[in-house]
């Protein structure tokens, strides 16, 4: 026999009842977490192979603050970059430091650095880059983390799938980079139509010691919140991000906070290939 409980119906039951009564609302099934992540990877792989496509560019203002134990600012540095996305890779060009334009020596250094980066980028095989990217992500994302699709959610007028991720048990070993990645968890908001990341939240699940017995120091806490903005072609670009970290360096406790804001988004022609 069926239960005669008088408990209130769940929101999902109410929606199902409404549908049975002739309502037109459709329940969109959630994909699996791994399916969503693979969609993200496919999107970035396609960008890596787009060698002659127009590139988005934007201004990024970055403010780095060093804080004391009472959260008061001890040091503050502000820089302005002009960012350009080439084959899915953000290329920064320093424009101002503390509000002043670069001097000739600094401009020359930026030109050399940018030319070297462009040369390296233009010399890679797009097909090989895609393969390597897929292999890396399959190992270090799909296998490293447990991904779970949680719900649909609107972000800046776009439908997204919210996916949580956390490290799988038994993978807390390897290099410092591996150990850091194995202690990260958070959530992704993925544009359902394009596979682009609309938002990212990440935090450190536990502290990370560096050096033998932590002699070099330890990262005690690290958190990041990145909010992106959709462009006219479906690309999402960073609009605002906050990174905070507390650590012990040798015998001193330090705290840092980095705030980045982006503006002046423009679509520009693809850069000319750099001659070897």
Brief account:
The chain is an alpha+beta fold and 276 residues long. Helices cover 25% and strands 45% of the residues.
Summed up, the helix count is 5
Sheet with the most strands? 12 strands, antiparallel
What is the CA–CA distance across the termini? 79 Å
**Over all CA atoms, what is the radius of gyration?**
23 Å
Overall structural class, as computed from helix and strand content, comes to alpha+beta
**Could you tell me the strand content as a percent range?**
35-45%
Question: How many strands in all?
Answer: 12
Name the shape in a single word.
globular
Mean pLDDT comes to 80
What is the element string, with H for helices and E for strands? HHEEEEHHEEHEEEEEE
Identify low-pLDDT runs. Answer: 1-21, 129-139
> Helix amount, in percent?
25-40%
Descriptive key words:
276 residues, alpha+beta, twelve-stranded antiparallel β-sheet, 12 strands
């Amino acid at each position: 026999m069926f239960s005669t409980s008088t408990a209130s119906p769940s929101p999902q039951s109410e929606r199902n009842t409404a549908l049975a009564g002739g309502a037109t609302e459709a329940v969109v099934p959630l994909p699996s977490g791994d399916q969503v992540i693979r969609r993200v990877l496919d999107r970035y792989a396609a960008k890596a192979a787009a060698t002659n496509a127009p590139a988005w560019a934007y201004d990024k203002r970055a403010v780095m603050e060093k804080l004391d134990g009472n959260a008061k600012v001890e040091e503050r540095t502000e820089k302005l970059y002009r960012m350009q996305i080439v084959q899915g890779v953000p290329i920064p060009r320093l424009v101002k430091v503390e509000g002043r334009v670069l001097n000739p020596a600094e401009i020359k250094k930026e030109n050399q650095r940018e030319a070297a980066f462009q040369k390296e980028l233009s010399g890679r095989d797009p097909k090989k880059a895609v393969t390597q990217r897929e292999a890396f992500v399959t190992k270090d994302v799909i296998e490293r983390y447990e991904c779970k699709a949680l719900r649909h959610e609107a972000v800046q007028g776009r439908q997204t799938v919210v996916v949580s991720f956390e490290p799988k048990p038994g993978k807390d070993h390897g290099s410092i980079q591996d150990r850091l990645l194995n202690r990260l968890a958070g959530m992704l908001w993925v544009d359902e139509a394009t596979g682009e990341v609309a938002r990212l939240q990440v935090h450190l699940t536990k502290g990370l010691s560096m050096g033998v017995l932590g002699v070099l120091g330890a990262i005690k806490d690290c958190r990041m919140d990145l909010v992106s903005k959709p462009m006219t072609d479906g690309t999402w670009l960073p609009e605002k991000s906050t990174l905070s970290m507390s650590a012990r360096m040798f015998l001193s406790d330090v705290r840092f906070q980095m705030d980045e804001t982006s503006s002046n988004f423009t679509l520009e022609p693809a850069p000319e290939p750099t001659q070897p």
